[in-house]
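Retry 2 of 3 after timeout on previous attempt. Resubmitting structure tokens to design endpoint.
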């Protein structure tokens, strides 16, 4: 039996994430793999976006895919933060608070001893980075697909080992400013081992070649 869990976050009136609403976490003897993917979608999408991606990479995988706490009332879809209306300090604080909730949810006896891998696209990529930076020893690695970057003051918890990170962008991705791409490279280099790939002709998207590289990257992750 696989662990296929879709979950969402709600917002308190003050704007901080409330406790996640979760499904059942299966006991470890029902798992088919020691990896659990913890996944975060991009702006305007939902938790099903990341299921489609991970099913293309590792179709028998166990995963937890999370829905962003901000619902777009008129256009639909969800977001992790308001990139147009919030400054970087607020975005960074929001993502750190969400990360604390996620790590608390993962602190389950059913998941102990299993490798946890963050996977995020765009806004979800920045959120994955922020969670890894705050909790580097919780995760075996991270897959950051076209992540944005909003650290007001880059910071990370000192890891006992350098987690492995896959960082992928399209050569024609104009959605993420070049300065954000440079900043996340610099921030990751301080505490992680990064494998970066650029995909010729790809915009703010993913492609078959990238998913092939992600599959290979995941096979190289060490046991922790």
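Retry 2 succeeded. Sequence:
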């Amino acid at each position: 039996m696989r662990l296929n869990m879709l979950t969402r976050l709600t917002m308190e009136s003050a704007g901080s994430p409330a406790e996640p609403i979760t499904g059942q976490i299966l006991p470890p003897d029902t798992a088919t793999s020691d990896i659990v993917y913890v996944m975060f979608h991009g702006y305007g999408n939902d938790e099903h976006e990341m299921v489609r991606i991970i099913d293309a990479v590792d179709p028998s995988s166990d995963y937890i895919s999370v829905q962003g706490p901000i619902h777009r009332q008129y256009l639909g879809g969800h977001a992790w933060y308001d990139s147009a209306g919030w400054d970087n300090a607020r975005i960074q604080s929001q993502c750190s608070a969400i990360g604390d909730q996620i790590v608390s949810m993962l602190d389950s006896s059913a998941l102990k001893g299993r490798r946890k891998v963050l996977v995020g696209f765009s806004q979800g990529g920045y959120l994955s980075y922020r969670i890894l930076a705050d909790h580097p020893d919780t995760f075996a690695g991270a897959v950051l697909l076209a992540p944005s970057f909003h650290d007001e003051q880059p910071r990370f918890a000192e890891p006992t080992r350098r987690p492995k990170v896959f960082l992928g962008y399209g050569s024609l991705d104009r959605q993420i400013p070049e300065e954000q791409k440079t900043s996340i490279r610099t921030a990751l280099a301080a505490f992680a081992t990064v494998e970066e790939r650029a995909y010729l002709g790809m915009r703010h998207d993913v492609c078959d070649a990238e998913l092939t590289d992600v599959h290979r990257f995941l096979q190289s992750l060490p046991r922790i």
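Attempt log closed. The longest helix spans residues 88-106.
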